[in-house]
Amino acid sequence: MHKSAHTVDIFLHPGDVFFGGHDTRIRTLLGSCVAITMWHPGMLAGGMCHYMLPRVPRERQHALDGRYADEAMELMLCEIREAYTAPMEYQVKLFGGGHMFSAHQAAGVEHVGKKNVEMAHVLMKRHGFSTHAEHLGGAGYRNLMFDLWNGHVWMCHQPPVLSGISKGALCEQ
Q1: Of 173, 148, 113, which Cα lies nearest the Cα of 42?
Q2: Are 144 and 30 in contact (CB under 8 A)?
């Protein structure tokens, strides 16, 4: 299936979670954040979350918040249940977790991107998801575009500019 004339184009900001149908394209921009894409090939539907931190602080009591990996996953699982589907039916891809401030961080300190990547792997295992692809870690930012009509995720990884010299972007499907 190809993009239709009536495509819905959604841009996810940090903390956003979105599920939609075959007429939807989801986009986002990642640094240390992580995006999880989920696509159901039988329904031509799926979703994406864009989380900023691995888990919600313990002292907080509130409604689910997509800025935190554990709660973004709960929001996605709610969508999966509402569609009467199961986690193992989805093709899952993971992106992001880049080290954005390596020049300003003390040696030996674990950066938030690495913690976000670790949490993504924990959540995949905990909830029975099978990861079909991932592009995680490293340095720099990633642009993502996820087409729900065919499950393709297009990614462009831009490494950080060092001393005014850019190494060029890596773009792939």
Answers
A1: 148
A2: yes
In eight-state DSSP terms, residue 104 is G
pLDDT single digits (tens) 16-36:
999 999 999 999 999 999 999
DSSP sequence for 62-91: -S--TTBHHHHHHHHHHHHHHTT--GGGSE
Residue 83 CB coordination number (10 Å): 16
**Token digits of residue 44:** 């031509």
The yes-or-no verdict on residue 68 having pLDDT over 90 is yes
Reported pTM: 0.87
DSSP 118: H
Dist. CA 159–CA 173, nearest whole Å: 17
> Are 107 and 26 within 8 A, CB to CB?
no
Residue from 48, 52, 41, 51 nearest 79 by CA: 48
Give all domains of the chain, ordered by start, each with its CATH number: 8-172 (3.30.1330.200)
Go through the chain and tell me how many residues it has. 173
